[in-house]
Amino acid sequence: MKIGYACLTVGVPNTGMRTCTMKNARSERFIELIGNNLDSLENMIDYNIRNGILLFRISSDLIPFGSSPVNSLKWDKIFEERFHAIGQKIRRSGMRVSMHPGQYTVINSPNEDVAKRAAEDLEYHVRILDCLGTGPESKIVLHVGGVYGDKEEALRRFESRYRVLDDGIKRRLVLENDEKSYSIGEVLETALKLNIPAVYDNLHSKVNPGGSAGGDTYWIEECRKTWKAQDGDQKIHYSQQNHSKKRGSHSDSIRIGEFLEFYGRVSREDLDIMLEVKDKNISAIKCINSVAAGKSIRALELEWSRYKYLVLQNSPAAYLQIRKLLKDKTSYPVFQFYRLVEEAMMTESTTGSSVNAMQHVWGYFKDVSTEKEKYRFLKLTEDFEKGQAKASSVKAFLYRMAVKYEEHYLLDSYYFI
Q1: Hey, what domains does the chain have and what are their CATH numbers?
Q2: Residue 290 in contact with residue 276, Cβ under 8 Å?
Q3: What pLDDT does 212 receive?
Q4: For a pLDDT cut of 90, what percent of the chain falls above it?
Q5: Sheet order of strands, 173-176 included
Q6: Distance from C-alpha of 119 to C-alpha of 51, rounded to nearest angstrom
Q7: Dist. CA 160–CA 108, nearest whole Å
Q8: CA distance linking residue 413 with residue 12, whole number of Å
Q9: Distances (CA, A) of 162 to 38, 124, 166, 352, 391
Q10: Does 230 have pLDDT greater than 70?
Q11: 103 C-beta neighbours (distance < 10 Å), count
């Protein structure tokens, strides 16, 4: 089983995707942006390999205006060597990558132009995965589309449009249920009819069950029947409800107790779980650590190095409890560790606890900083304590210090996120 995340790597330097406006859409600009984005992708792949994350969704923004006539570059030829090098890392590591076009890629639209552009966008996604040299197990996830006032006609339109798609698209396409229009039962029926693998999304199914009584385990097993050997292991999407936002909104982080309960019901060696969550890779590592066999206390110590100053900022009590928890080097208290981290993240920081964390972080610079930098830190923290400056201003200064003095322990931490 692989557990992974989608598109963006949180808190990792040099992993951002860049684009441009139509006004600045020129060949020279595209070459610059694509070069940057491929560098970012390679940095994300390297990060994933270092952290044992072997399931990853590549951002559709990799090539600016990739499916538009505006970008007429033969980018696959220009960057052929870069794609090959990145693809080689993906294949050697055993990583499985995928892509997921956006909401405007709708092949069942009544508007022929919209449907044509959707097909072109799917071709663009196939082109990327082909350039990376990935096999048919690297999928492109698509929703059925809109209802347009007549669901039966919309489904017929999807079927007819799908049948004339290029075989390269059909080889990679998988269908996912959504939270508004098409329930997992309707998606599964279409998938079986067209011989397409179906991806089950648990949160979408909670929001849009489609009148079906089936639960997670039932639907995952039903979708399993649509996956053939050449498709690779069955893949599902997993997310949790953000309780402070509208129904169907993804949580900021995966709540580990809730995830482990789900995992205990559905886990199989041949089932891959794509997490859809705001903190991306951070939750992926949490879930991997919580279910992987043979992990040692070292994995939690590495996680603690990332979390410690964020936990100290929010909850000094949890900080002390975790330090005590990790003293036994023969144990692996993974659930207790993450529950304490989650409790700290749900605790609102005080001015005092924030300043305490700031001073701990400043300790890395006190012997190397200039007099001007020392004065700046003192002034910023004093202003923060008086309510005349925001915590984000102090943290921004500390981040610049970490970059200047190449303090990687801090740059790798979650404190600045």
Answers
A1: 3-291 (3.20.20.150), 297-411 (no CATH)
A2: no
A3: 66
A4: 91
A5: 96-98, 55-57, 3-6, 271-275, 234-238, 198-201, 173-176, 140-143
A6: 35
A7: 9
A8: 9
A9: 30, 16, 9, 60, 52
A10: yes
A11: 9
